[in-house]
Amino acid sequence: MKVALFVTCLVDLMRPSVGFAALRLLEAAGCEVVVPESQTCCGQPAFNSGDRRAAIALAQKTIAEFEGFDYLVAPSGSCPDQIRTEYPGLFLDDPDWRRRAEALAARTCELTQFLADVLKVSSVPGEFDGNVTYHDSCTGLRSLGIKRQPRQLLDKVRGLSVKEMPEAESCCGFGGTFAVKFGDISAAIAERKCVNLQAAAADAVVGGDLGCLINIEGKLRRMGDETTRVLHVAEVLAGTNGKLV
Fold first, then answer.
1. What is the spatial distance between Cα 5 and Cα 32, in angstroms, rounded to a whole number?
2. Distance between CA atoms of 12 and 15, rounded to whole angstroms?
3. I need a surface site. Which of 6, 70, 193, 233 has the fewest CB within 10 A?
């Protein structure tokens, strides 16, 4: 199976260890993985800001780069949601591009969704000596139905146990540009999330979207919590646990 890894902007710029962990997981599962070097943004920020022209241009670029693979997989829920949910609607007046958008949308998956539901992996490379609590990202949970898959995979990590936090499905306050436009509201939501995850008394908080994790870690540190680790689920499943390997 030939899989294209969509790295995502935040992973590329802020935490490339997540991308390498995703690559390790896909290769361990037997996939031939290609990372198209020309890939950039999926267009979601432009789409959410009302810049339809830029969103369409970026969608066309992404479709052309990724449509030749069996699957597009990303270590994020937000980018696959943009491709699966919004791309077809960008081309209502262009039947050819709409067909191509729908075809790619049908082959696009978030990482844990792909590992659990498509590949149905029976094991993962990771080891983790301790317990974690899981944060459900809004887009992955509500648009893609990602809830069971990361927990199912975390159960396969040697030495790890999951301790559920109160309100695990509640927003962390990030929401992309929401955190910029409504800073005070975002900070209050983030504080509530951090109080809840601290109540779980876990060694680490784990999630599937880097935007959420950056927001959570920033708030934790400002609250004086220097010990709770903040890890992407790919890093835990791959056993890299935040290291660039």
1. 10
2. 6
3. 70
Give CA–CA dist 202/161, Å, rounded: 9
Percent of the chain topping pLDDT 70: 99
Phi and psi of 181, rounded to 5°?
-75, -30
Pair 72, 4: CB distance under 8 Å:
yes
From 150, 81, 160, 142, select the one nearest 111 (Cα to Cα): 150
Q: Compute the distance between CA of residue 157 and CA of residue 231 in angstroms, rounded to an integer.
A: 14
Between CA 116 and CA 85 the distance in angstroms is 21
- Pairwise CA distance, residues 80 & 71, whole Å: 11
pLDDT tens, 122-143?
Answer: 999 999 999 999 999 999 999 9
Asked if CATH classification 3.30.2130 holds for the domain at 124-238, the reply, yes or no, is no
Does residue 125 sit in helix, strand or coil? coil
Residue-range domain boundaries for the chain: 2-117, 124-238
